[in-house]
Structures are given as structure tokens and as C-alpha cells.
């Protein structure tokens, strides 16, 4: 005890010495600016007279299109949705974002930047007569923290998505032509101000000022925000009227600082629901003025950050620091008192623990017994029913041929996803429930960063359910085939994560048996985790034989998933189109045969893609779809391909070999052949 106290004293006196040194040298290491610093105004301005390529050769670099959006040369506009991309433009969402971040908050003083933006826009309803009386979901001017996500279609205006439910910093001014009572909309002709939520903080009925947003005319909006005063002014008028509207439709105090990061992206978002609408932005001007005190980059990393070089401020700060000995002395005395209190507390607690050690020995031993982390457990039907609000449709996340997924909240507050197997599935695929539950428990004890943890299971009321951790970003298919556009760097990371997870499963003599985009989930850091395992119901005679077959099926499905990620489209398109392109796997092999694989790469990713890397990954995907006796690699070999991207991979045959089994991207049945149910 004496030795421990002596060591603690030495550490405390060293700490006090350092505190004294720090307090004696003034505020330089910790202060970003002092009261004597004069702020510098940093101005950012850009202007688009129209959105025509002929007038704006740098348009594709300055404005990033996401989701269903395009530049219309015919109108010289930024158009959402893109009716040329989809035959049915219902339930589409898109964004047009200025490609470079704008400094909109001083992180030290929490003072928002001042900005002014004006833009002309036109909202055209569907030409279908039965829909002409209805508006689409509307258009927003948005300020968001990233440049690659697109929100939900329908009433969410492309503003918020499944990844943006908690503490999502976003600001929007919506021009809404659809009444959604659940969001508090007064009518189908209003302007709203949204702060981090789709429910408007302020709503203006523009019918009261004689404006109809869906009359087909071109309107112009002026949005002005005074950062230091925290006041917003919105004006609205016809674009062909030269006079600036004398009366604002909104002019009130509004603090945006809680909803801003230091750097944000500005632009427009729009969406459609059951009723469609074409949203055109015809011109756009934006100017911001922010106050900067920074000498060093802030903790937020962002290209284009401000480095202030103000040599005249140094003498002022130095002079200020010389007048601060009383403050330094108080800091020193407070530190001494705190250290003394810690020492006395540590001494009495140690003494108490030593006296009680005999009593607590058995308890301590029990607590520290080795236990699996997050050990899966059995849930009752009533527990899961309560957590999902009686399996309410509100909590329904999705469904497939095997059952339905529900979002649930356990009694301890943690969120889970509950897979409820359908009665039809259980009856159709066999009655070996014991083996099903055994495999669920085995998977539940496996832990890997790229595997979705299994929280537990339920066998009750003739029901079988699996409980997983809830992943807020949802499944990969929603990001690939929905309104958002994942950049190549994230897609490449997803593919590598999936390969790591599968390889680990195979080393444990386990298989996924249900690999597809909807069973790959993205966590808050966009790390891919494998879930929705295809638990086996029917047993094979030879477990070793079954394992080998299902491993081969996993590799094949991984190859098809790679093609989906690169192409940004589903493996088997049922809609009308070129019959030769409907089956993604066949189409990829045809492009390989004529050496035009680059055509498969998703063009929505734009120019920010490493084509050489994408083609190599595509070839790895094709290797995985070969027959096992014709060169299909193991997942361990696939991981090696990704670890050393400079190392050559086996050469692909010019044409795809004929499959030994009826197994292709439309029929995930190689494992079915041997009773491995997917």
C-alpha cells in the first residue's frame, strides 16, 4: 500500500508541475482566438445562369447529381426526377448538390454564416389527366452534411433517409405541393422551414399571398439569412417580374447553429410519391459570408478549410497573456485541491476494498468467469411482440419468401431487428425445427466485425424468430437500387467487407446460404455486415458434403453481388428493355467476351471512380461464377486478391463455361440441389 501511495504521489506532483507549466505560458495551446482578435470575413460565391452544358462546361464538376436527377439541355435546367432514366417516375428522389463544401459555422463562437441565395424554379404536374389536380411531393433548398446520400421519396422530399433518423444536421426550405396531415401540412401549397426533421418548424400558406406553386409558371425565391443576428427572410415571386418583392412571406428570428456543422453542402432535393411532378431549377445564385478566427484547422477535416495568417494579432495575444497571473494561480490551486481529494478518496476506497476482499472473493470470481460477449438468449413471444408493438406494420422493415423483418425495441432500450419466419415457409421446407434452432445458436456465438450479431431466438406459440442487432443504415439494396448513389470508394469497401465476413464463416465450417444485397447491411460507418442468414431446415446426409456445396454457392453468390455493386442494378430485371441485358451475369460475360466490361460500371458514380480498380474487381466477380472444377476460387483466395491489388489474378476464359448445375443469378439453387435451403 505504501508503494502504491508513493507512486501515486509522484504522479500527482508530476501532473501539478505540468499544469503549472501550462498555466504559466498563457492560453496559446488551447485558445483558438482571443478577445482582441478581429474576425476576417470569408466570402464564397457561385452563380449558374442556367444548367446548360453549352454555357457551363464545368457543370458536371461543380454540381453533383444524386439519385433520379439530370441536367436538361432542352430547358437548361437541373431536373428532378429524370424521366428518361425510369419508365415509372413514381416514388423517385434526387438531389443536385454544389460539389464543394461551404463554411457555414464558426465552431468556436457557434456563429452561423450569413448567406443569400436566389433561384428560379418550375413545378410541372404529371400530364396524365387523372393526376393533373394533384401535386407531387415538392422541392427543397437543402443544407446537408454530406454529398452522397439521397433521402426517401414521397413526402420525405428526398431530404431524410433511413440513415438520418437521429441527430441528423440538416436545414431545408421546402416548396411543397402535397398536403400530408401527418406532418402538419396546412394545404397543398405551402413553404416550410425544416430543421433536422421533415416536420416543418415554420409553415407559410402561400395561397394567402396569391401564389400557386403548381400553376406551371416559373417562380423565383429569395432566401436571406443573417448569421450574427440569427434571422431568416424568405421572399417569393414570379421570375418574369423584375421587381424584388417588397414584402417577405417570412421574416423571423431563427437559430440555425444547432443544425449546422462547420462545413456543409448546399443544393436542392425533390421527390415524387403516388402522384408525379417534374421539378426544374432554372437558375441559381449563392453567396455566403462567414466570420473566421481560426489559426489552425478545426477538428473537422474538410478540403478547403481556412488557415488564418494574421501576424498583427500575435502581439495583442502576448500582451493579454501577461496580464493573467491571477487566473493561472487559481487554476494551480484548484488542481492541488483536486489532486488532494483524489488521493484521499483513493486511500479510503483501497482500505475499504482490502477489508471487504474476503467477503467479495466468491462474487468477484463469478463476475469474471469467461463468458461469450453478447451471449445470445431465448426470447418469449410476448417479449418480441411487445418490442415490435404487436408486429405492427409501422415497424415492418421488409419481407421475403421466408418471412418478415420488424424493428423492435427491447426493455433495456436497445434496438433490434426481428426476423419472423412465416408459417408457410416452416411447413413447406420441413419440420426439423431442432436443427434450425441449433444452427441459429451456432451462428449466434460467432463474432466478426463483418457479421451481424445474433441477439437471440424465439421458439414459442408455434413461432420461430431470430433477433439481430438493428443496423440504422439499412440494407445495401436500398442504397444501390434506391434513390441514393454510393461512391466507388464506399462500394469497394463494401465488397471487401463482405469477402472478409464470408471467408471467416467458411473457416468456421459455416456458410451464409442467403447472400444477396438485401442481406448485406451498412452500419453507421458504412461498414458492411452480413445478416439474414439462410438457416438450413432440411439435413444433408453428409455434413462435410453439405458444407462444401454451400461454400461453393456462397462464392458464386458473392460473384453476382460484386456485379450488382459495380453495375448498380439488380441481377435479373423483369421490366422491358434489351433482353440481352436483363440477366446481369449473362450480360457481364458477354461484355467480357467482346472486351467492353467498362460498360457495366454504374455511370451514376460520375468521373470519381478508379476504372482500373473497378475492372479488376469485376473480373474477380466473374471468377467467382465459374464452375468449381473450372477455376472458381475459395473465399480465402478472394480475400488474398483484395489484399494485394497489384498481384495478377487467374486469367478468365473468353466465354463462360456451361454450368454443371441449373444455377444462375435468377435461380439461387446450387445449394437447393443438396437441400441447403436459401
From TrEMBL:
SUPFAM superfamilies: Concanavalin A-like lectins/glucanases, Protein kinase-like (PK-like)
Signal peptide: 1-24
Example GO biological process: defense response
PROSITE patterns attached to this UniProt entry: LECTIN_LEGUME_BETA, PROTEIN_KINASE_DOM
Record-given protein name: non-specific serine/threonine protein kinase
EC number: 2.7.11.1
Membrane-topology descriptor: Single-pass type I membrane protein
Localisation: Cell membrane; Membrane
GO CC, alphabetical: plasma membrane
UniProt GO molecular function: ATP binding; carbohydrate binding; protein serine/threonine kinase activity
Transmembrane annotation, as ranges: 329-349
Database matches in Gene3D superfamilies: 2.60.120.200, Phosphorylase Kinase, domain 1, Transferase(Phosphotransferase) domain 1
Principal location listed in the UniProt entry: membrane
Similarity comment text for this entry: In the C-terminal section; belongs to the protein kinase superfamily. Ser/Thr protein kinase family.
Keywords annotated in UniProt: ATP-binding, Cell membrane, Glycoprotein, Kinase, Lectin, Membrane, Nucleotide-binding, Receptor, Serine/threonine-protein kinase, Signal, Transferase, Transmembrane, Transmembrane helix
Any Pfam family matching the protein: PK_Tyr_Ser-Thr
Domain named Protein kinase: residues: 391-642
Highest taxon above the source species: Eukaryota
